[in-house]
Structures are given as structure tokens and as C-alpha cells.
Design brief:
130 residues, mainly alpha, 4 helices, binds zinc ion
Length: 130
């Protein structure tokens, strides 16, 4: 009502930091949460297809890979420890379980961590409200 009376365009509300990071983790635009963050498996879009927010210059570099390696290592080593301590499996069976699990986890987590890093970089690149 006030906006219509003053003739000013409504201001775009900024999402909270946690919400933006969650949106990045789900591979959505950290600004609107509607547009897709990636054009393909790991290739980020230049801008959001919904709100036109630019993602240019948000290069996550090796951060997502390091985070993925850390998480996958913790999970895979824990799984290997559980299998080994149960004592019921041969080394071949353990490797047939742990190796595909490790590869699948890495492929699953890498786009998620990359989305998270891009959302974090997007948050850091924004100018603080004054
Ligand atoms: Zn968007």
C-alpha cells in the first residue's frame, strides 16, 4: 500500500546467510532459491535464470574438492573400520563394499559442496547493508 502510494519499486528482500547456504547446498540460486545454480553436473551458470543474479567471478576453486575428500574419508574409513571390526568379511568383500561406496559418495557430494561454496562466495561478495 505504501509502496503504491509512493511509487517506489518494492525492495528485493535479502535471504538470511543460512538460507542462502542451504539453497547453495541444494544447487539452487542463493538469492531467490528458484533458479538452478548449475548448467550441468559441476558447471555453474553465469547468472540465475529466474532472478538474473550474476554468479560471474564466483570461482570455488579446490574448496569443494577438499571438503568432499574430507567428508568421504571420514565416512569410508568409518565404514571400513566397522566392516573390519565385525570380522565376518574377507578383504575382497570389504573392498567390494567400500570402494563403490567411496566413489558414489564423492560423486554425490561434490556438486552439493560446490553449490555450498558458491553460495558462501556469493554471500561474501555482497556489499553489507549500511
Ligand atoms: Zn535466482
Amino acid at each position: 500500500m505504501l509502496i503504491a502510494a509512493t511509487g517506489l519499486a518494492p525492495m528485493k528482500s535479502d535471504p538470511s546467510s543460512g538460507l542462502s547456504l542451504l539453497r547453495g547446498l541444494t544447487r539452487k540460486c542463493p538469492s531467490c532459491g528458484v533458479g538452478k545454480l548449475f548448467a550441468s553436473y559441476l558447471k555453474p551458470r553465469d547468472s540465475c535464470e529466474h532472478c538474473q543474479e550474476s554468479f560471474a567471478g564466483l570461482n570455488a576453486d579446490d574448496g569443494p574438492a577438499w571438503l568432499t575428500v574430507g567428508a568421504v574419508t571420514i565416512i569410508s574409513v568409518s565404514l571400513l573400520f566397522i566392516l573390519e571390526s565385525s570380522g565376518g568379511y574377507s578383504y575382497t568383500v570389504e573392498m567390494l563394499i567400500v570402494l563403490p561406496t567411496t566413489i558414489a559418495l564423492a560423486l554425490l557430494l561434490l556438486p552439493l559442496t560446490k553449490g555450498f561454496f558458491i553460495a558462501a562466495l556469493w554471500l561474501l561478495s555482497r556489499k553489507p547493508n549500511t
